[in-house]
Specification:
- With 378 residues, the protein is of the alpha+beta class.
- The protein contains 14 helices and 13 strands.
- It has a single domain, classed as Creatine Kinase, Chain A, domain 2.
- The N and C termini lie far apart (52 Å).
- Helix 9 crosses helix 12.
- The strands form 4 sheets. Strands 1, 2, 3, 4, 5, 10 and 11 form a 7-stranded antiparallel beta sheet that branches.
């Protein structure tokens, strides 16, 4: 099975942001995506080019076009968010983003009208029906399929860093899960989600996808939801590991970190280097540590079991990538990673709000909406 790879301009960028629609009175998730998307759709178009349905009617996904810089991607998202916010206000809906809603019960939610989502629910049943989760996906352009699989393999080392930095789902249906990212554990229950397989190259990727499709495990390669995956239609590496984050500041930081990592690995390949393939058990254990403890985790750094604090590991990566960030004109956004580490992840901030209000999770929703509107505190 041949899978064409639509090569992209090197280090080009695209971002997808799944936004929650919340009732301004109850703070529960509430349906409204269809009405919002109908209202903001251009009159001469069948659908909005940069806003679309997700699985649930209480979600609108906003997406960028192909961008050259992180600043351009943030501005692209901001324009669409302004449209969505105005239409949502007409329905008494507010906007926020977090990996999970703090207390809405997933059994109350309506699936979007897209037939693809109903087919997913039919195939996956309970696993799909409970996917009341929200994420951020970052696409970074790669010019050739020969580079994609080595880059995906090498990027798995940074899955825990990205997950800890974005962790924003400590609550599930009104209960503190004890995790920093409950979303990551809910999502990886799908049979084709979670950590990517460490493949030898594009030929093995094509063979794997042929097996899945020919055995009717999936209908298209879009149904393989790895934490990091090739996206042949866009010509990108897609980083899907991150929880949904509530601020443009965090969007910019995650996009900058993702873009710089892919660019550095791409350049290493051009220099003739063989990219490292992290040991699978270390990657798996580190992902669990990030999901459980977030920025408070200790991350394993070698096969001998040596560990360092997650915060230190993230800041070391940022320092290492700063020359790349300056070349890509995203040094300011990459520096925002340090702000997040200093202020705490969204999961930590949510818990602080709950503790300050005797466990009242409506106050957490209010804080998430405020951050979505105003950004990270300075």
């Amino acid at each position: 099975m041949r899978i064409p790879f639509a090569a992209s301009e090197r280090a080009s960028l695209g971002v997808e942001w799944e936004i929650e629609l919340v009732d301004t009175e109850t703070r529960e998730l509430r349906s409204g995506a269809s009405e919002i998307l109908a209202e903001i759709c251009p009159p001469d178009a069948a659908e909005h080019p940069k806003a679309k349905h997700e699985l649930l009617e209480s979600t609108v996904e906003v997406i960028t076009g192909v961008c050259a810089t992180v600043a351009e991607a943030k501005e692209d998202l901001a324009g669409t968010v302004r449209e969505v916010r105005k239409a949502a206000a007409n329905l008494n809906l507010g906007l926020m983003c977090s990996g999970t809603h703090p207390f809405t019960d997933w059994t109350t939610q309506q699936v979007s009208p897209n037939p693809r989502y109903h087919a997913l629910v039919e195939a996956m049943q309970w696993l799909a029906r409970r996917l009341q989760i929200f994420g951020v996906h970052v696409h970074v352009g790669v010019r050739s399929p020969e580079k994609v699989i080595p880059i995906v393999n090498a990027l798995t080392e940074y899955i825990p860093h990205l997950l800890a930095l974005s962790s924003s789902s400590p609550y599930w249906i009104g209960t503190d899960t004890g995790l920093a990212s409950a979303r990551s554990k809910v999502f990886e229950s799908l049979p084709t989600a979670g950590l990517p397989y460490q493949l030898s190259g594009w030929d093995e990727f094509e063979s794997y996808m042929h097996t899945l499709i020919s055995t009717r495990t999936i209908q298209s390669i879009r149904e393989v939801w790895w934490d990091i995956r090739p996206h042949p239609d866009f010509g990108t590496v897609e980083l899907r590991i991150c929880d949904g984050v509530p601020t443009f500041d965090e969007i910019g930081a995650i996009a900058a970190l993702s873009q710089c990592l892919v660019e550095r690995l791409d350049r290493d390949l051009d220099r003739g280097y063989t990219l490292p393939v992290p040991t699978s058990w270390v990657v798996r254990e580190n992902k669990w540590r990030a999901a459980r403890y977030g920025l408070a985790a200790e991350v394993i750094v070698d096969d001998r079991g040596n560990v360092v604090p997650m915060k230190h590991a993230i800041l070391d990566v940022v320092e290492d990538l700063m020359p790349t960030a300056r070349r890509l004109d995203c040094a300011d956004e990459l520096a925002d990673v340090e702000r997040i580490v200093a202020l705490g992840s969204s999961a930590q901030r949510q818990r602080a709000v709950a503790a300050a209000h005797d466990g009242d999770l409506t106050k957490v929703v209010d804080a998430l909406q405020a951050e979505f509107r105003d950004g990270l505190a300075r």
